[in-house]
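From: lab user (bench 3)
To: helpdesk
Subject: output format question, protein + guanosine-5'-triphosphate

Hello, I'm new to running complex predictions and I'm not sure whether the block I got back is the full result or only part of it. Here's what I submitted:
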Amino acid sequence: IERTLSIIKPDATRRNLTGKINAKFEDAGLRIVAQKRIHLTPAQAGIFYEVHKERPFYGELCDFMASEPVVVQVLEGEGAIAKNREVMGATNPADAAAGTVRAEFAESVGENSVHGSDAPETAAAEIAYFFSGLELVG
Ligand code: GTP
Ligand code: MG
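Helpdesk reply: Thanks, we reran it on our side. This is the complete output you should expect:
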């Protein structure tokens, strides 16, 4: 059974969309085995998104992620990484399939409501960045 790190981003927490987004995850068979609401500092967001530090939108992305609270969570299920990304939809909401989180809720390519890990190695590192083993209740 696989686990992935999910973040409900500031544009979505601001609009009280946490419950609607969680319903989509749960309907897809993903179990929320850990969850907390936190307010990242720009430096903490910068470490999380370090892989993107050479991209032109890095500063904007870090400022956005630190602008308001986020909900970080661990989702568990068969093929959880791919399944979560399917439920999320494409990065740019204009390209996201109907019914996905980003098609329904994302405001732009930057403020796109959710993050999901993209591979087993990144999932493990991202989960460890936010949660201790004791906080994961499967
Ligand atoms: P994550 O699950 O958040 O990692 O999204 P992703 O894997 O679909 O996209 P990617 O890893 O390529 O980009 C990470 C995040 O950077 C995106 O989710 C966006 O929030 C942001 N981002 C990507 N492209 C752009 C862009 O062109 N402009 C801005 N402002 N932000 C972008
Ligand atoms: Mg990504």
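A quick orientation on your result: The radius of gyration is 14 Å. Let us know if anything else is unclear.
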